[in-house]
């Protein structure tokens, strides 16, 4: 399924997202997979932040979701911070959600 925004060339969701999912989010906010959540919060991102990690319930005080399918809404942007072997599965989930 091709994303309508990708077909139209509309980059507004990428440049001004209303929500961001961070797949592989870590409770260690100094790690490469923990920094995106930390920095989004620190610099006042006004949208919703969805940490995604099947091994956590909470990351940085935010509810954590086990996978992209479990998110309460389709995020505008997904940051992928997992091992390379897991990336195809995450990309597939994003595609199915229309990200």
CATH 2nd-level architecture: 3-Layer(aba) Sandwich
The neighbouring-strand order within the major sheet is 2-1-5
CATH class: Alpha Beta
Average pLDDT taken over every residue: 90
Number of domains: 1
Helices and strands: which structural class?
alpha/beta
Give helix and strand order, one letter per element, not per position.
Answer: HHEHEEEEH
Strand content: 15-25%
Residue share in helices?
A: 25-40%
Approximate shape: globular
Q: What's the CATH H-level homologous superfamily?
A: NAD(P)-binding Rossmann-like Domain
Q: Could you tell me how far the N terminus lies from the C terminus, measured between alpha carbons in angstroms?
A: 10 Å
Main sheet, how many strands, which sense, barrel?
3 strands, parallel
CATH fold call: Rossmann fold
Low-pLDDT segments: none
The overall strand count is: 5
- CA radius of gyration: 13 Å
Number of helices: 4
Describe this entry's structure for a reader.
The protein is of the alpha/beta class. The chain is built from four helices and five strands; from the N terminus they run ααβαββββα. The strands form two sheets. The protein has a three-stranded parallel β-sheet with strand order 2-1-5, with helices on both faces.
């Amino acid at each position: 399924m091709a994303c309508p925004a990708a077909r139209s060339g509309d980059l507004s969701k990428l440049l001004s997202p209303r929500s961001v999912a961070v797949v592989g989010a870590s409770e260690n906010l100094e790690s490469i997979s923990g920094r995106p959540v930390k920095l989004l919060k620190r610099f006042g991102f006004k949208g919703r932040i969805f940490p995604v990690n099947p091994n956590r319930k909470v990351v940085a005080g935010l509810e954590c979701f086990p996978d992209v399918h479990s998110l309460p809404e389709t995020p505008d942007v997904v940051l992928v911070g997992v091992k390379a072997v897991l990336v195809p599965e995450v990309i597939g989930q994003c595609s199915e959600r229309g990200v």
